[in-house]
Amino acid sequence: MIPRYTRPEMARIWSDENRFRTWLAVEVAATETLAEAGQVPKDAAKAIKERADFRVERIHEIEAEVRHDVIAFTTAVAEIVGPHARWFHYGLTSNDVVDTAQALLIRQSSQVIAQDLQRLAEVLERRAWEFKDTPMIGRTHGIHAEPITFGFKIANWHSETQRNITRFMAAAEDMRVGKFSGAVGIFAHLTPELEEKMCARLGLKAAAVSSQVIQRDRHAHYLATLAVIASTLDKIATEIRHLQRTEVREAEEFFSEKQKGSSAMPHKRNPVTLEQISGLSRVVRSNAQAGFENVALWHERDISHSSVERVILPDSTTLIDYMLNKTTNVVDTMFVYPERMRANLESTRGLIFSGQLLLDLVEHGMTREDAYRLVQAHAMRSWKEGLNFHNEILADKEITSKVPRKQIEYAFDLPRQLKNVDKIFARVFGKPKASAKSRTNAKLKKKAKSR
User: Fold this and answer.
1) What is the arithmetic mean of pLDDT over 148-167?
2) Residue 131 phi, psi (nearest 5)
3) Which end of the chain is more exposed for a tag (fewer CB within 10 A), N or C?
4) What is the C-alpha to C-alpha distance for residues 312 and 3, in angstroms, rounded to an integer?
5) CB-hemisphere CA count at 13 Å for 439?
6) DSSP SS3 for 324
7) Residues 134-139: contacts with CB within 8 Å, 24+ apart?
């Protein structure tokens, strides 16, 4: 089942054609290994490798009668191979093929997703440096807190994306296992040594132990990791959506000249792509829950997980590929309004510096409780009456008698609040190479001209 939001490469990976081609690769690898071990005639293995083929339509025709996809597949291949086909699928059970091939399909999907994650990280890094020194208000509970920079916000997204890359590579590696252990995993017809050789031939590791299937804790971990990635993309999308609100308007999803936001209101510029990302992230997270449910199977295996995985594995990998590309494009092309950020930063007339003033009063001998009471009283009055908090503080003799005017002015100094941004960037990105900086500046100039 291929989801609607499918880019070409993912569509190819999860197509019936590629799935059956991957099954065939597993079958051929098993036959060649058995031929080398003397358990299958070499001429049969050679004939199978050279002749084995199928038509998807024929597989579906047979499956409609036998109601078993692997039998339909082996029958369709046997029709083409001829007499030597009696050695095709020799010693194997269905899930030796299906689970091992599924690991290969997930490996193909994971390679695409890994590239997507890297591209997102690169765009986040470039835009973080672009806005490293662009001040804006930090918000907690949606309320103005203390100053930050927009680049600092993006650096946080980049750092989380790097953690996602690490998590994803580990989860993908955990899925890089195959099995040829038979109907209950006990190697009644083959041996662990042959399994290891078959898996190695396919670029996989052999599962240390399996039942009729590879154990589904691996799949649950993989799907959960995709869900974490989806949550990060949701986080980025939600933040930009908030920044795009009319009352805020500090950043905005790209909106083309011919784009329409509403059928009824011509003025609307809605963050539709960001909302799509947030919505689809819910699907990926719900798929992870289904993956957890698949871990507990009856005894050495039941089939309850199979129908679920036919949906959630193509679904989640395809959606993550789609969402990563959409998020990368949004971050790359979003409009940013530094003047609006500055205006919002200054809109509360100095209230955002109350924390530093509190510390300065404490440093000059006032108890924290008294200092808090005094600063809060001015803050609440300034908020309620629309007063200039800075001026109110300078007019308070109780404060000016404790703290020198120069020190009070310094409490309202924006660069003082942002003095450690460079150190944070060094933690996140390390020291940027001069050539990388030059490339970034060139891109920014080019983008500025185009706008």
Assistant:
1) 98
2) -115, 25
3) C
4) 10
5) 9
6) helix
7) 134/336, 134/338, 134/341, 135/341, 135/342, 135/345, 135/414, 135/418, 136/250, 136/341, 136/342, 136/344, 136/345, 137/341, 137/344, 137/345, 137/352
CA 396 centroid distance within chain: 52
Calpha distance 26→269 (Å, rounded): 51
- CA–CA separation, 76 and 83 (whole Å): 13
| CA–CA distances in Å: residue 34 to residues 89, 196, 360 | 11, 12, 79
Strand partners, 433: none
Would you state the structure tokens that stand for residue 9, as one six-digit string? Answer: 């490469």
Q: Using an 8 Å Cβ cutoff, are 198 and 279 in contact?
A: no
Give the active site residues: 141, 262
Nearest to 56 by CA among 20, 14, 89, 85: 20
pLDDT of residue 436: 46
Contact 193, 33 (CB under 8 A): no
Name the region of 68 (left: φ>0; alpha: ψ -120 to 50; beta: rest). beta
| 8 Å CB contact between 428 and 158 | yes
Cα–Cα distance between 315 and 2 in angstroms, integer?
7
- Structural domains of the chain ordered from first start: 8-87 (1.10.275.10), 94-339 (1.20.200.10), 351-411 (1.10.40.30)
**Position 236: which residue type?**
I
Give Cα separations from 105 to 14, 22, 74, 97 (angstroms).
7, 8, 19, 12
Residue with tokens 């038509």: 55
Q: pLDDT tens, 193-244? A: 999 999 999 999 999 999 999 999 999 999 999 999 999 999 999 999 999 9
Band the pLDDT of 429: cuts 50, 70, 90: very high
pTM for this model (two decimals): 0.91
412 touches 350 (CB < 8 A): yes
Tell me the sheet residues that pair with 135. Answer: 149
In 245-303, which residue ranges form alpha helices assigned H by DSSP? Answer: 272-293
- Residue 154 tokens read as 């993006």
Tell me what pLDDT residue 450 has. 45
Q: What is the mean pLDDT of residues 106-128?
A: 98
Q: Which carries the bigger pLDDT value, residue 446 or residue 436?
A: 446
| CA–CA separation, 418 and 431 (whole Å) | 18
Q: Which of helix, strand or coil describes residue 147?
A: strand
What is the amino acid identity at position 41?
A: P
